[in-house]
Design a protein that fits this description.
Blueprint: H1 2-7, H2 12-23, H3 35-38, H4 44-55, H5 57-64, H6 68-89, H7 95-104, H8 123-130, H9 132-139, H10 144-165, H11 172-197, H12 208-225, H13 227-232, H14 240-243, H15 252-255, H16 260-274, H17 277-286, H18 290-310, H19 325-333, H20 338-354, H21 363-397
Helix pairs in contact: 2-19, 4-5, 4-6, 4-9, 6-8, 6-9, 6-10, 6-11, 7-10, 10-11, 11-12, 12-16, 12-17, 12-18, 18-20, 20-21
Length: 406
Amino acid sequence: MIKDIYASITRPREIAAMFSIRLGSGDIKQYKESLHELSPVLSDRDYCYAALNKVSRSFAVVIQQLPEQLRDSVCLFYLILRALDTLEDDMRFEESEKLPLLRSFHELIGDETWSREGIGDTADYRDLLKHYPKVAGAYNQLAKEYQDVIKDITKRMGNGMADFASRKVNTLEDYDEYCHYVAGLVGHGLSGLFSASGLESAYLKDQLKISNSMGLFLQKTNIIRDYHEDLFLGRSFWPSEVWKQYADHFDQFANAPDSPESLACLNHLVSDALRHIPDCIQYMRLLQNKQIFRFCAIPQVMAMATLAEVYNNPKVFTGVVKIRKGLAARLMLHTRNMDEVMKSFKKFLRIIESKMNSNDPHTPHMQIQLASIYQLIEQYESSDNQLQILTLQYSSASGVIVEQEA
């Protein structure tokens, strides 16, 4: 916490936001004990929230703000996919056992006798798989309509992960397909859960393209940011179709992080991620429930801030680049509606614009791309203002002026 405060020392609003988030965590209980110690003493449901807080603190905060009838299903959806992802990520797990398990994991998600020991890159991930019967028990308490969505997505994701175990991400099409399996399907699943809850329109579950883009935007941001970590682990998700335009070997970027070729490759992939923004804006505009909107919008704004941080930044090749926790806290507090989302998007797009290098061969394309996104945001703001004017005119006709948030 002290380190985070120091990073935001010249930004008092960020410090205030960090304390506000910390003090306003609601039902989130901080456990000092390990998941292994908590397993015998907590109910299945309480264990799942403890596990969620251990494996993803930021996600735990936004889940707690969801409507009560959605909270448990989204928590379980995350943990089940986290378990599946842990099976995929562990490089020590023999593929002869891993691949069949990825393909059949959907059949085990409600099995209160199944568990695995020693699998996972961190102690918390290993504990989650070891005590998976707690997750299965909580899943079995969900309504069937939620179970059906989670099981379907788990099956499709597990098969996609298994397919890519023997494939490399070569082309941009491969890149999109891989990100679809590990993140776009999460977008599909969340839309299905939102519709099943009755809090969002039934047609939301059918908005597959834009639901997919919500996941791809987040996943591509993480893949770009995690270059150095993935290189250290001996894996790569950057499409070779792109990076081979700038280097003969993938580790050349780490050896020459400041070179024009390294930065051009990085910026090329940032540009590719930005092409999903129009779909993301369209998706967020469809959401009707304010709590669901915040749940979806906060990660999108965080991803936009991260892309602004990594763009043209050689530190991506030598370590992990993250946004300040104070900035993240401010974004969490001030992402409440589309107006605030658009304001944040414009802010971070301008940061990218300010970091452009005229010698980068991809800069002209990026300039056109940013202009297109700015135009889309302006159209949203114009239509939003017009809607507010029409609302006031309608109210005035009846002799009453009523301000409404469009």
